[in-house]
Amino acid sequence: MNNPAIIRRGLVPAVLFRAALMAAAVSGLALLGCGGASRQALPAAAAGEDAGPGGPPADASLGVFIPGVVSGSAVYEMLVQGTEAAVKSHNAAAGAAAKAVIIEGGYNQAEWETKVTAMAASGSYDLIVSANPSLPDIVSRVSEQFPRQRFLLLDGELAGNPAVYTLRYNQREQAYMAGYLAALETEELGGAVRRIGLVAAQEYPVMNKVILPGYLEGARAVHPGYAVDFRVVGNWYDAAKAGELTEDMILGGVKVVMCVAGGANEGVVQAAGAGGGRVVWFDTNGYGIRPGTVVGSSALYQDKAALNQVRRYLEGTLPFGSAEIRGVKDGYVDFIQDDPRYEAAVSPEVRGKQAAMIERIRSGELILDP
């Protein structure tokens, strides 16, 4: 990406910030029972056999693969909550005994494919549910070995595989709303430079092709002179490094930083708070993390997506082979405006401009194709 408005830099040693914050990597498959008693494994999904027609069994077994850990990750907590709610409502309505088992894959992304493969090879799950932009590539390879295994993937896209359904959020809308607010706040704070920050855990296609340019696009809707200072942590847990990157941006004149770095987000918030900066949160409501420092939350409702799509699967109506996209108008993506901490942290003028922009998206006047 050669856009001169996107500034990429490596790690610069911290001057003011050093915190010993690092989440321990989780190895192996951590199993969290969800839905009751233990069960018998189903017949293994043999390589070379297609998924075949037909709906799910009434007592379907779902394996929910968490690419990380559930605790402390609101996005994965929502995935679990939505799946559990769908299973519970299905069992109550149908007198069934469907079950869900939560499997934590840990922070080492290099191990995720092995763990998803093990789940498919076990034959224990009628459906494997997960959510992460990296999962479609992993599942594409696993599906070649176990074509009978069905998958439901959120926050990713893979079309044309008859055993896989994906739902991708319109993250251009989500990033645009965040960038617009970041630029409005920078103007309000009297920033010496028209530059906003973005700290990402890693570079991946959706980040580079959708989130980063969408964030810049939103800022430039406020003023065409905006640029993005883009930094990469290298993993999803190193809060100390994320804090160093954030501090260096703030020392360079950035006033507002968006973080998309998982557990490393904590370092961004701490460094911004210590340096007088502001943070725009991504994916969930982050206002309560550090009120006054977190001034925006550009959210997606993964609990709603999991509830609705798992319910469709249990009803036998999930369109495998399809890759659907949902956004603001569908109620899956939003910018949270009704939190009192947002109202306390952001001026009425900025809130009014932000609300007007969001209404243009919701009404269809402003179209941001994914």
Task: Describe the protein.
The chain has 370 residues and is α/β, with parallel strands linked by helices. The chain has two domains: 6-18 and 171-300 and 331-363, Rossmann fold (3-Layer(aba) Sandwich); 30-170 and 303-326, Response regulator (Rossmann fold, 3-Layer(aba) Sandwich), CATH 3.40.50. Helix content is 38%, strand content 20%. The protein is built from ten helices and 14 strands. The chain has helices at residues 74-94, 112-122, 135-145, 171-188, 205-222, 239-251, 265-275, 302-315, 340-345, 348-363, and strands at 6-8, 30-34, 61-66, 99-104, 127-131, 150-154, 164-169, 195-200, 227-232, 256-260, 278-283, 294-300, 323-326, 333-335. The protein has a seven-stranded mixed β-sheet with strand order 1-9-8-10-11-12-14, sandwiched between helices. Strand 5 (127-131), helix 3 and strand 6 form a beta-alpha-beta unit. Helix 1 packs parallel to helix 8 (302-315) and helix 2 runs parallel beside helix 3. The longest helix is centred in the N-terminal third of the chain and has 21 residues, at 74-94. The protein is globular, with a radius of gyration of 21 Å.
Task: Please outline the helices and strands.
Elements: E1 6-8, E2 30-34, E3 61-66, H1 74-94, E4 99-104, H2 112-122, E5 127-131, H3 135-145, E6 150-154, E7 164-169, H4 171-188, E8 195-200, H5 205-222, E9 227-232, H6 239-251, E10 256-260, H7 265-275, E11 278-283, E12 294-300, H8 302-315, E13 323-326, E14 333-335, H9 340-345, H10 348-363
Parallel strand pairs: 1-9, 3-4, 3-5, 5-6, 6-7, 7-13, 8-9, 8-10, 10-11, 11-12
Antiparallel strand pairs: 2-4, 12-14
Helix pairs in contact: 1-8, 2-3, 4-5, 4-10, 6-7
